[in-house]
Amino acid sequence: MAAVESLPPGTPSAMRNAFGTVLSALILVLIGVLAFSIRLFSVIKYESVIHEFDPYFNYRVTQFLSKNGIYEFWNWFDDRTWYPLGRVIGGTVYPGLTLTAGTIWWVLNAINIPLSVETVCVFTAPVFSAFASWATYLLTKEVKGSGAGLAAAALLAMVPSYISRSVAGSYDNEAVAIFALIFTFYLYIKTLNTGSLFYATLNAIAYFYMVCSWGGYTFIINLIPMHVLLCIVTGRYSPRLYIAYAPLVVLGTLLAALVPVVGFNAVLTSEHFASFLVFIIIHVVALVYYIKGILTPKMFKVAVTLVVSIGLVVCLIVVAVLVALVASSPTGGWSGRSLSLLDPTYASKYIPIIASVSEHQPPTWPSYFMDINVLAFLVPAGIIACFSPLSDASSFVVLYIVMSVYFSGVMVRLMLVLAPAACIMSGIALSQAFDVFTGSIKYQLSSKSKDDAEDNTSTKNAPKDDASSGKADKGEEVAKERLSKKGKKKEREPAEKPSVKSKIVKKKALVLPLEASIVALLLLIMLGAFYVIHCVWAAAEAYSAPSIVLTSQSHDGLHVFDDFRESYAWLSHNTDVDDKVASWWDYGYQTTAMANRTVIVDNNTWNNTHIATVGTAMSSPEKAAWEIFNSLDVKYVLVVFGGVIGYPSDDINKFLWMVRIGGGEFPHIKEADYLRDGQYRIDSEATPTMLNCLMYKLCYYRFVETDGKGYDRVRRTEIGKKHFKLTHFEEVFTSHHWMVRIYKLKPQKNRIRGRVKKLKQKTSSGVSSKSVKKNPWM
Amino acid sequence: MTMAINKKLLSLLLLVSSLSSIASASFSDPDSDSDLTNELASLRSNSESGVIHLDDHGISKFLISSPTPRPYSILLFFDATQLHSKTELRLQELRREFGLVSATFLANNNGSDLNKLFFCEIEFSRSQSSFQRFGVNALPHIRLVTGSTAKLSDESGQMDQSDFARLAESMAEFVEQRTKLTVGPIQRPPFLSKAQISVIVAMIVIATPFVIKRILRGETLLHDHRLWLSGAIFIYFFSVAGTMHNIIRKMPMFLQDRNDPNKLVFFYQGSGMQLGAEGFAVGFLYTVVGLLLAFVTNVLVRVRNLNVQRLVMLVALVVSSWAVKQVVYLDNWKTGYGIHPYWPSSWQ
């Protein structure tokens, strides 16, 4: 837009420029609408509910925040979870998402728009994905001009990988964090291009917001130092680089340390050490450049030896200190999740709780096609476009794509970080390709007519013709993509105008054959159309299921399975408010949020021993399990069972992790006892330990009454032990489709109770020492 | 808490077992037993990482002719040189791990416990009769012969597949479980020895000034854009091909067809898994389209000859659309997702 001011008003190019600005603003608004509305499938197909597991916790925290205010929230000790330990919520949660939604809710209420907290939470993610696509526009514009920016923004608005984490209702940290990530990168690049301290300060604040929002901020604080180092090593050091980096490290680290969950980790854990090391290096380099400026070349050579040797010594000392720090801290200073990125086999070897989560698995090639679709084809072209010519900004996006694509290869979850990079790269590639092809067409059409005056009109007509031919067989979104291409042409030309005219002439000579260009253009548009179809399909079919309500389409119509909410409602209506409910950790957040009952473990897997205790109880025989649960004051045990309707992610399928995690802490649980030929089986081949463990019994109790045979539709087999009675548990609730079953711990038998009373009168320690023997939980 | 109890329990068990072994030793002929033990110990001290190489003679001497409550257990590794070429059996790798367990056991034990367990191996070509005696007809096979094992064909001491799945660590667990002896944490030899590390550090220190000088002059390989470009493209190819998946899951390049051993399976149907060759093929398809596009927009525009441009573009377009089609087809085949557009309902 700077070009607008430099040109005298009233000239045709200024008019075109203004028109282009308005047009691209309009396109950006449409992109925002697209990003928001493509994420509403979940609300339309299901209803306006919070999805899955973690969002329920965030929702509960937001409710607390909106009810009690920020100070109460900051000091909140939650006694409804991790019983009997509890959890300090204020100090263990990334508050960015909660504060954002809380603020939105507060503002809306202040201007008399009475939305419920739940509604605000449901729609936070779609709103922020619109912001994210605008941020992508800004970032790509800094790298390769606004044409590429518009294309990248349109691609990001509907990239499936990002949709999967930001559909309406998916109220999780990533929803706001991806916006924060892109915006931080934009401000970094902006600072790098302008050298302005104003943007550098904004950058630190954006980084602070990112730290508040998501643990993935470590990606930023490692990527930016890497880029700085890369610039230094390739001889691209400039004062702008210094201004972009040094304030970010100082202010950013200070601000990050303000977030309770990060705190002193911001200077103590080795994820952050790279930034400090580069901080020192950039100062050494800055000094060298400064001295170079004030000395004659000869003197400089002498000085260089001196400075380099001193700098080396300092660096070596710092490295030694860092190494010592890293070595002295537990796990070498690297947290398990980060270590599993560097040594991919680390997690699967040593940390079952990380290996057990499906989103920590390495992806196969179809995952890329599912999550970034045709962008996977365009990225290499984008990388090459960034190298011609290579600037500070374009080298940053190249580094970004390379790092994120590597990390996404290790952990499928990080595909989310790759998606913006892939969109930026593909936007650049598409924009360049459109530029060349439409440029060729335009040049040849105009040279055929040999009329300079018609140049402008034919420019507009040529792409429009192609576009209208494509319009017939694709959706609205492609039109937007086309628009973006048009907007880009308008924007790009003024940017080139100030440069010498001969350059334009030279560029015009670089053309491709007319008919081939038209075909290529059509193919590219078809590729874009396919992308749109895929994204809409993915948003509608693959990523919109809230997983709290399930549906299935069969020949006799649509079936809705609302068993989860049914049973949480049962719990909240039929049990005492202080009763403790035990279940596998997956259902912890939902139980506290929807049933308002105290749970033993939940999805915040901070205490492995506690989880292992529950795993041990689930894998133990009934009596031992009863003792463990009783020692934890558990009243009810909740299991999720999919055998009746064929719901595959039920507790029996998760059972191997209960055994593995339980066995990791309590060695009397041995995985081998549950395995037959290396497999968990529940049919007639199952091991006796398996058939006697609590999980088997709670899932399959009375199961044979459903169909008379006991046929499990998930495992596709008849179960091994069909008729048995429960001795220490009683069934109190089974949901409509048997998906959730709740059992109550039977009270102790009279005989035992009498003995306990007697013993209690004598000595209070007698009972506990007896139960301790078999009970791993002490 | 539990750890402490475990340790106490363990020491108690050790005490009990050593007492019982003393008791049993007193019943059998103590002289010949201690002779055999001493002989094994001396054999062990002469062999690498303490794994004794036994043959038919040794087996009969230490296991068959000795009376059953032997004062020692033997963990026997069955090896066959002729099968070393079959990599899927992992014989050599397991043998190395076996040696590691043995070395760790030697390092962590001294005194009476040391002579309770001996690590031995026998080789198929030189001791076929022993293989028959043990009833071993499939490798890999590791068996623990405890002091009380009377019949060699008794397979209760066999180590399961799962027991050496995690290599030395799980072998050690197996040994600790069965013999009640402690092996301790496995001590793997460091990747680089201390001398090597110091040499490398010294070289780096010496080289740094020269490197910095070159960096300041701007003449290193690092200043070559083409290197960075090809590196970036390569990492991209490497990742989208799912190579990390193949490394972590240790996937083979291809499989043999179960129904027809002569046929090779290169593509695995089902989205959770992929084969090596499959990943590289699709990674290539992913990459080639972008490379061709970049070639056309960056290089081909500079070519003057119109017909060359036409020809190259034709080839590029055909190859690109083929690659995209192939990936779409393969993805559909592999995952079974039916992607479809949504038309306005009034159109139907």
Automatic annotation (TrEMBL), chain A:
It catalyses: a di-trans,poly-cis-dolichyl diphosphooligosaccharide + L-asparaginyl-[protein] = N(4)-(oligosaccharide-(1->4)-N-acetyl-beta-D-glucosaminyl-(1->4)-N-acetyl-beta-D-glucosaminyl)-L-asparaginyl-[protein] + a di-trans,poly-cis-dolichyl diphosphate + H(+). Coiled coil: none annotated. Residues 462-499 have a biased composition (Basic and acidic residues). Residues 450-499, 755-778 are annotated as: Disordered. GO terms for molecular function: dolichyl-diphosphooligosaccharide-protein glycotransferase activity; metal ion binding. This is dolichyl-diphosphooligosaccharide--protein glycotransferase. Residues 578-637 form the STT3/PglB/AglB core domain. Keywords: Endoplasmic reticulum, Glycoprotein, Glycosyltransferase, Magnesium, Manganese, Membrane, Metal-binding, Transferase, Transmembrane, Transmembrane helix. PANTHER family: DOLICHYL-DIPHOSPHOOLIGOSACCHARIDE--PROTEIN GLYCOSYLTRANSFERASE SUBUNIT, DOLICHYL-DIPHOSPHOOLIGOSACCHARIDE--PROTEIN GLYCOSYLTRANSFERASE SUBUNIT STT3A. Residues 22-425 form the Oligosaccharyl transferase STT3 N-terminal domain.
UniProtKB/TrEMBL annotation, chain B:
It holds the Pfam family OST3_OST6. Its main location: endoplasmic reticulum. It is found in: Endoplasmic reticulum membrane. GO terms for cellular component: endoplasmic reticulum membrane. It comes from the Eukaryota. It is a multi-pass membrane protein. Keywords: Endoplasmic reticulum, Membrane, Signal, Transmembrane, Transmembrane helix. Belongs to the OST3/OST6 family. PANTHER family: DOLICHYL-DIPHOSPHOOLIGOSACCHARIDE--PROTEIN GLYCOSYLTRANSFERASE-RELATED, GH11935P. This is Dolichyl-diphosphooligosaccharide--protein glycosyltransferase subunit 3B. It comes from Brassica campestris (Field mustard). The lineage of its organism: Eukaryota, Viridiplantae, Streptophyta, Embryophyta, Tracheophyta.
